[in-house]
Here is the input.
Amino acid sequence: MMMDIGQSFYPETVFKIYLINSPLLFSAVWAIIKPFIDKKTRKKIITEGKNYQKLLLENIYVDDLPSFFGGNCLCAHVLGGCLFSDIGPWNPSGGIKNCNK
Here is the structure.
């Protein structure tokens, strides 16, 4: 039911979802769940194993990608770094901006 609501009323709220370094068990579960997700939504979900850095860097600016994913962003101005920053379009005072600036 919740999946239907999300797909019907909020399909365009997500540009892409990257599931990286996912274990083999997830791949098996994903193969079962995938047919139940709308095709348009399914195209936005990208799964990648251990070699995910190239894919992320092709789609995300290196300065915006957290250092623990192979980028340059440290969010040094935020206590706890990138994991605790709230930079993004959902934050009216933050907006989309580079974490390092």
